[in-house]
Amino acid sequence: QVQLVESGGGLVQAGGSLRLSCAASGRTFSTYAMGWFRQAPGKEREFVAAISWNGGGSYYADSVKGRFTISRDNAKNTVYLQMNSLKPEDTAVYYCAADRTNIMYTTEGQYDYWGQGTQVTVSS
Questions:
Q1: How far apart are CA 67 and CA 62, in angstroms?
Q2: Residue 90: strand, helix, or coil
């Protein structure tokens, strides 16, 4: 079992930066692939980024590629999402997810565990 808690969300101006954190509990965390998803009001949850268990591989949605960076520190049981050059369209609730098969899936149905989310609002 894995428990996930997101933090670091808030209000920023367009062009600014924000770093989200996902703290995980569970002895098997280091063997799980991790992903970030987001959901805006009235829209479906969409994939943002994913990272392999050892941090050796990562994958990004086209909408955030070049602006966002996913990383992890297994010693701290934490996954990060560094968001730069933020746009109003990035406004959403951001969720952290864990995949026990260590596959960087881009669909939410393939992930086993989810956090409660953290709000990110980008003003124009």
A1: 10
A2: helix
CA-wise closest residue to 55 among 39, 38, 84, 34: 34
| Concatenated DSSP letters of 28-43 | TGGGSEEEEEEE-TTS
18: β partners? 83
Q: What is the pLDDT of residues 53-73, one digit of tens each?
A: 888 899 999 999 999 999 999
Give the three-class secondary structure for 110.
helix
Buried/exposed code over 34-66 (b: 16+ C-beta within 10 A; e: otherwise): bbbbbeeeeeebebbbbbbbeeeebbbbeebee
- Mean pLDDT over each residue of the chain, to the nearest integer: 94
CA dihedral 33, 81, 78, 22 (to 10 degrees): -90
pLDDT score at 97: 96
Rounded to an integer, what distance in angstroms lies between the CA atom of residue 100 and that of residue 110? 10
Q: Which residues contact 28 (CB under 8 A, 6 or more apart)?
A: 2, 100
Q: What is the pLDDT of residue 71?
A: 97
